[in-house]
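Can anyone check this?
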Amino acid sequence: MRHDIEINAEGTILRGWLYPAAGANDRAPAIVMAHGFSAVKEMYLDRFAETFAAAGLAVVVYDNRNLGASGGEPRQELDPWAQVRDYRHAITWTGLRPEIDAARIGIWGSSYSGGHVLAAGAIDRRVKCVVSQVPLVSGSRNLKRLIRADMIAEVRRQFDADRAERFRGGQPAMMPVVAENPFDPAALPTADSWEWFTSTAKLRAPAWRNEVTLRTVEMLGEYEPGDYITRISPTPLLLIIAANDHLAVADEAFAAYNRALEPKSLLVLPGGHFDAYVNDFERASGAARDWFVRHLKA
C-alpha cells in the first residue's frame, strides 16, 4: 500500500515511500526514517516500515540526498549535517499531510542515520520519540579505529589534495564504500561490511553504488552526534546496540546511553552491526515498534 513520494528539501528532491497507517480512522502518528552510510531505502528499510505501519503508524522513508532515487550533487557525497537537516525537512513535509498528526512524529535511524536521529532529536522539539539503532556516536574516534595509525598522515594528505583539486574546479576524488580485501582502501574496511553491502545489493538494491566521495570520509571524521545525546530529554529515546558491533563500536554506544537522560531504554542485540537488518530483525523492529506505539499512540 505504499506510495511514491517527493519531498522538496530546499531545492533538492528527496524521493521515497509513504506507508499509510493500518486501520487509521483519524490523523495518525508517523515515523520518519532514512538509511545509514551510503545505503539506499531498498536495503531492508521496507521491512521496518511495514512493521511500523501494521501497528497503526504512518511511515515516511526516503533516500538520503545524493544517493539512490533522491536528487542532489555531487552524487555519492554524504554530508552528515545536510542529512540531519533533511530529517527536519521530512518532518515538516510529514506534519503537513492531512492524514498525519503533526504533534505525534517520531524518528528512526540506523548506523550513520542512527547518529543523525540523536542530533535531530536533540535539536528539533517537533520530534516526540527517537529510536537509534547501532548508531555512530563519534566520527573521529570511529575513524581512528578503522584507519591504521601508520596511514592517518597519508589519508590527511589525500583530503588536502582533494580539497585543492575541487577548489580548482576538478572532480571530487572517490573511494569504495567496502572492499573484499581488508587491506584495500575503503570507507568501511571490515569483512562484515563487505558481506552485507554486496549481498544486500545483489538481493535487494542493484542501484546501490560502491563508492563515496573522499570528502565524505573527511566529513565523517568531523561528525560527533553523540555530543547531542544529553539534550534529547525529555523526548523518549530507545537505543538499540549490537553487542558485537565493531563498525560503529558497541562501547561508544554504551557510553553514550549512560550519558543520556531519562526517559530512555536500552535493547542489546547479540550479533554484529548488520544483524539488526536480518538475523535480529524481529527483536530490533519489534522493540522499535513497541517504543513508538507506547509514546506516540498512548
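Reply from J.R.: I decoded it. The chain has a mean pLDDT of 97.
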